Sequence to fold (462 residues):
Amino acid sequence: MTELATMDFHPQPQPGEAKPWAFPAPERAALGNGLTVLRCHRPGQQVVAVEVLLDAPLDAEPAGLDGVATIMARAFSEGTDKHSAEEFAAELERAGATLDAHADHPGVRLSLEVPASRLAKGLGLLADALRAPAFAESEVERLVRNRLDEIPHELANPSRRAAKELSKELFPATSRMSRPRQGTEDTVEKIDAAAVCAFYDRYVRPVTATAVVVGDLTGVDLDALLGDTLGAWTGTPGEPRTMPPVSADDTGRVVIVDRPGAVQTQLLIGRVGSDRHDRVWPAQVLGTYCLGGTLTSRLDRVLREEKGYTYGVRAFGQVLRSAADGTGASMLAISGSVDTPNTGPALDDLWKVLRTLAADGLTDAERDVAVQNLVGVAPLKYETAAAVASTLADQVEQHLPDDFQATLYQQLAATGTVEATAAVVNAFPVDRLVAVLVGDASEIKAPVEALGIGEVTVVAAE
Fold:
């Protein structure tokens, strides 16, 4: 009789004890030219991330020149008093660095990533871009043409078209928030080098700017580097701008952007809420995640898993502009796409999910999963210097304390199910939501009207 062979198994490895983690706290200082500096030493992060925030908000753009902040942001990397556009790009490449910039409602932000070994070179190029940008007529003209070429593509994108329409619906026409962030064809085509230079001269100065530096700073004399680079940037004195209060109309209604023949409908349902200074923010983040933050959320379970209407629906809160005096605002929204024939049934079920949530509340299991996902994965989310720098810059931009993110995770872990339920129900009241549908109006208008969720109007897709 053949004897069966036996196997010896090694003991199964056991997980170690989790190490305590908290979002890193920065050190705060100021240069002689008035530039505020936040630094954060992250051992092992050999790619250093630098974020520079400029107090040049979209609201400051001159009338009729929407988009000039975006063109200025893009032009920062198109040459300086030392280098042409081609030379500047080559110098960045030699340093192994990348430099990006964009404009949004709070202001303009420049983002540099560079190896720690070439930090001096990278900071020098960034400082040159801020101190003496060329803003050459030919480069500005090229950037304007590029931006004009982008606009038709954005209008053809259902999700971008829905976002444009929702902003137009929520905010009064006099508000900059009602119009596209990067301008329209009518406004962008009026932008020239003189307009860019005027905007730069009026709003770009170190005394109202902040630089965030994150990475492995071992052996780096950052004070000396900053003094020789960003510290050489000078500008006229100035005070931070006072922002007007945000007003919005979230009367429940439906707007259909007509796309004849569309095989699916893009949904964007939203309203305006308070910003991160509101004490309810942590509970709202938790409740919104339970509603539509992941594949296991309420909305996905019904609309995706049970009914098969969509590949996914998401609920989110996005800060538009923040202020410590309560004049800030965030966009609270639900987005996704469904096939055209099921647009009416999908909206009906979506509203049922919201009503059920208000009536029965979240479950403890939903709350626990959300906390685990939001808090438990935070150390992975902030593994890179760029992720830390971006979040610190967000805090500065939104006038939040330096320990806000660390405190937020503590608050999320301590938030109960009842509190999260109340916050998400208040965030998405069924009778105060503006629904934008980009789809075939001839197919979806009648079924949507039958739902009784608000007056239905149809606009052309342009």
Summary: The chain has a mean pLDDT of 95. Residues 253-460 form a domain with the Cytochrome Bc1 Complex; Chain A, domain 1 fold (CATH 3.30.830.10).
